[in-house]
Amino acid sequence: MSLLLENARLIDPEKDRVQPGALLIENGCIKAILSAGAEITAARSRAARVEDCGGLFLAPGIVDLGVKVGEPGERHKESFRSAGQAAAAGGVTTMVTRPDTTPPIDSPEQLEFVSRRAQVDSVVRIAPMAALTKGREGREMTEIGFLSDAGAVAFSDGDRVVADTKVFSRCLTYARGLGALVVAHVQDPGLSAGACATSGKFASLRGLPSVSPMAERMALDRDLALVEMTGARYHADQITTARALPALRRAKENGLDVTAGVSIHHLTLNELDVGDYRTFFKLKPPLRSEEDRLAVAEAVAEGLIDVICSMHTPQDEESKRLPFEEAASGAVGLETLLPAALRLYHGGILTLPQLFRVLSLNPARRLGLEGGRLVAGAPADLVLFDPDAPFVLDRFTLRSKSKNTPFDGARLQGKVKKTWVGGAPVFTAE
């Protein structure tokens, strides 16, 4: 079946442009990108279905690197079904899932189980990561080769740092031999232990245990030294401080195979949002100063930071209704990723092609996935959205099982109107 999506403003992150036109889709892939009136008229006559996009923006679907789904072990927090529905509503067409489940995904059997569940229950694509060390305990390397054969797109211990430098160097060396990507959490584990805020005046006034931004720089410096020694492919999951940026810049200038990401929460919120100990704002790493937030946003704009992700971490009500120090860390973000990221567009920090480069094109490229592009032959994973549509977020309308969003009650701009995966509609706004 062929589908023509016409009267759209096409966002091409690869060519850095926005242009009016149409997309012809056949067999789940983009067949052609049409701009001339005669081409569109001819395609309209032979397409099985024609949809008018109403002059809205049509972009590659988001590839969200670092989504936690509660299967196995914590299905009450998030299942593949609920996460898939939330992703589709947020314009996310590929979820790159984390292995920090209960138990961790550290064997081919567990990875195959997760892949089968995802294939049955999720309406969007799933690209699973596997654990780097067994049990995420940082002592013994997993079977990286077998896990790669089973479909793992990268290896990570989630928010746990492999503290033993020798173990981590062995993991990087082995991953280098297989061409596998290692995703690391850059926080010094000793300094970060027990911390729930960034050190400074605000944390002192609130009496919260805090950690210096230097903990991020120290961990990144160690990792980059090991990457230089081993030649491994490396991705830092979240760079959130200005002090870490010079080390990242040097690594790239020196030709290391290094990329970095940042969560949308650290790009759009700062430490003051914690306010009166609001636990929905408790994240890992903790929210940073406004100076750090601005520096990281500038790094995204210049291309130093490659990826924006949701770092979707569902937590149930019981784990958040606790004193700030004791509450669980993390926030859901699949449905709020795009409207929150559009704050950067409305603020003049990023253009729409730049935004979808870090949301779609770069993560797809880094993981070797086919999506993230508007070119003939690419999968027809697409999102249609209105960047100017205003709304006030009500967390109880979210499709995730868990409702722990820091944007509850926030005024946001940008609504997803429709999402396609492989040319098939998986979400249509009411």
TrEMBL record:
One of its GO terms (cellular component) is cytoplasm. Gene3D superfamilies: Metal-dependent hydrolases, Urease, subunit C, domain 1. Residues 57-241 form the Dihydroorotase catalytic domain. InterPro entries: Amidohydro_3, DHOase, DHOase/Allantoinase_Hydrolase, DHOase_cat, Metal-dep_hydrolase_composite, Metal_Hydrolase. Keywords: Pyrimidine biosynthesis, Zinc. The keyword rRNA processing does not apply. GO terms for molecular function: allantoinase activity; dihydroorotase activity; metal ion binding. The keyword Zinc applies. Residues 350-427 form the Amidohydrolase domain. This is Dihydroorotase. The lineage of its organism: Bacteria, Pseudomonadati, Pseudomonadota, Alphaproteobacteria, Rhodobacterales.
